[in-house]
Amino acid sequence: MNRPLSEKSWQYRQLNAQTPGLDALSDALLELVRSGEPVVAGTADLQYSNGLAKFARGCPERFVQFGISEQNMVSAAAGMAAVGLKPYVATFASFLALLCCEQIRMDVAYSALPVRLIGHHAGISLGFYGTSHHATEDLAIARSIAGLTVVAPADGAQLASVIAASANYAEPIYIRTQRGRDPVVYEAGKPFVFGKAIKHLDGKDLVIIACGSTVHPALQAAKALNAKGHSVGLLDMATVKPIDSEAILEAATNARMVLTVEEHNVLGGLGGAVAEVIAGEGLPVKLRRHGIHDEYSLIAPPTHLYAHYKLDSAGIEEIAAGLLA
Fold first, then answer.
1. In what order do the strands lie in the sheet with 116-120?
2. Beta pairing partners, 135
């Protein structure tokens, strides 16, 4: 086990200054421990990237450093859950969803064990680490696995609420997070309900449905368009599976168009899930899926990539304005 960084170390202070949301995961897990839950946490040599160093410092007897052995970590977590523990294991989303797909399917989901799989630095947020480290297929993979709930929190406060709500949730969960630099969308302590979308704005011209990192820029884009005289709504579809069909159908019935926005391939992710619901009911609404269009993502700083793929507020506003025109 690696020794966690001291709170007084310059490296720890620098990391937290740059990524203040990193504490959200550890703080939420420590709260579960204080409430008496048999929580254990593990990571694959990334306790500083996901913030679990703080949990390791607070509860060293409940923390496992698996090293660079992600598949072993998932299988071990299944074993822990089988004997009554509540394991939360975290690594890069690209490794967790792709490399560990078999272990998630067979050891966790097929066995219906309440393991919480936290895939962080999802989408293109790893920037210069390159396409091999970008996770633009994980939503499609995770939601295709039977019995696996899929959640994409928008910020640290919502992640904490998801962790709190997961304490007594019977099914395994894939939790898709970013890199701890998420703009604030929610106030701390807002209860989270699995399977329920969160409505931010009503819209009659267009409803944007977003999840995870795209909620904040989509909200900014919707507000900008409404200020120009349009009627644009916004749904945070934080639970991608089981998806809130009722909220989707309400939006598709009351608005002329629907726009999904995700930091993911447009195939198989949030856009695919929304399309399935709308097509299943045969609703005559125009749907545009916005994200990464079936290509391997480029290598650049995350901010440049978000601008390139039009996943920042300006880009989303441009895409939405094109539909409204």
1. 63-65, 39-43, 86-92, 116-120, 173-176, 149-151, 239-241
2. 123
Q: How far apart are CA 172 and CA 80, in angstroms?
A: 13
Count of CB atoms within 10 A of residue 220's CB? 17
- In tens digits, the chain (325 residues) has pLDDT values of 445 555 555 555 555 555 666 899 999 999 999 999 999 999 999 999 999 999 999 999 999 999 999 999 999 999 999 999 999 999 999 999 999 999 999 999 999 999 999 999 999 999 999 999 999 999 999 999 999 999 999 999 999 999 999 999 999 999 999 988 889 999 999 999 999 999 999 999 999 999 999 999 999 999 999 999 999 999 999 999 999 999 999 999 999 999 999 999 999 999 999 999 999 999 999 999 999 999 999 999 999 999 999 999 999 999 999 999 9
All domains in the chain, ordered by first residue: 12-176 (3.40.50.970), 198-324 (3.40.50.920)
Verdict on whether the full-model pTM lies above 0.90:
yes
CA distance 318 to 322: 6
| Cβ contact 88:81 at 8 Å | no
